[in-house]
Amino acid sequence: GMIDKGNHRHFMMKEIHEQPAVVGQTLGTMIDPIQGHVTLPDMPFDLAKVDRVTIIACGTSYYAGQVAKYWLEQMARINVEVDVASEFRYREAVMPEGGLAVFISQSGETADTLAALRYAKSQGQHILSILNVPQSSMERESDVVLHTHAGPEVGVASTKAFTCQLSVLACLSIAIAKARGKIDDKEEARLCIALTEAPARMADVLNHEEAIKTLADDVAKARDVIYLARGLEYPIAMEGALKLKEISYIHAEGYAAGEMKHGPIALIDEDVPIIVIAPSGRLYEKTVSNMQEVIARKGQVIFITDEKGAASDGQDAVATIALPMLDEFVTPILYSIPVQLLAYYVAVAKGTDVDQPRNLAKSVTVE
Ligand code: G6P
């Protein structure tokens, strides 16, 4: 066919490896690395006048939206709500006129997301969609479209479309922060430079995938896996759990590390692998203290951190994955890769149909 797996065993692996290139391409459509600023297509409304953002999507695209909520609130100091389309469309959500509604979809054809888009339109919202497949139904019904340049994604479990969605959302967050006067030229340039470092760091992580592969046989024996993180990485914990469920059929949950004490801590024993995702930054110490609580209860921790974190807290975990250092703002893009690789190698160890997992479809065009 026109698209082949190259020298990879599965499309998913090929698509994981394409990420440095397609994230670079996607950022290249919006960031001028010399001037250090973000340029978005002309919009038929004024971004500076938007005072409320509603983000709607399904599946992996929804987790990209969750990351964007943290970015927008922190940088642009704007109200953001995020919901899954299947709930949003029937909720009778209150949407004051002039708000911005953002729809995220790889296919642009997901039935629930399209219905939610039509509802938002009927409520007088500006409709901005972040789409991968060109010329979709959502593209036709949006006021403005930002394209991810991931190229065709064949594996049912989304990988490269997700990191490209994050790249677009990071740029959109910078643009909204700038339009609202919440960041200056210097800060905009700093954020742009940090983002343009992502592809090279992603390639570094992909060059060290053996470290993750060796963990897969043990994780493959588990009945349940818990992913813990805070802040920007919390949605990556949920996405990591979703990836594992989708392709390895192992039950997994992504949980806010600080919420663990209100329930999931009861599940922890020596048979439950706990994936803790904690790059250095504002919430690092808090997440590490949650990791210590897990270790004290004999949880088998796989610690995904950076070089600094590995040096200071790596000794107590069963395994530690040390990623390169990167600005905190960009970490969700980088930390997506180890959770994708872990799910992939666990699925391969279990012998499942990685590219076509049971009961799932690439795009769900019926309710
Ligand atoms: C399906 C796919 C997922 C995807 C979701 C949303 O469930 O299996 O990988 O994240 O739909 O798809 P969309 O095309 O709207 O991003």
TrEMBL record:
Active site: K362
Molecular functions per Gene Ontology: carbohydrate derivative binding; glutamine-fructose-6-phosphate transaminase (isomerizing) activity
Main location group: cytoplasm
Stretches that traverse the bilayer: none
Cell location: Cytoplasm
Record has Signal as a keyword: no
Catalytic activity of the protein: D-fructose 6-phosphate + L-glutamine = D-glucosamine 6-phosphate + L-glutamate
Subunit structure: Homodimer.
Entry protein name: Glutamine--fructose-6-phosphate aminotransferase [isomerizing]
Source organism phylogeny: Bacteria, Pseudomonadati, Pseudomonadota, Alphaproteobacteria, Emcibacterales
Gene: glmS
Residues of the full protein shown: 242 to 608 of 608
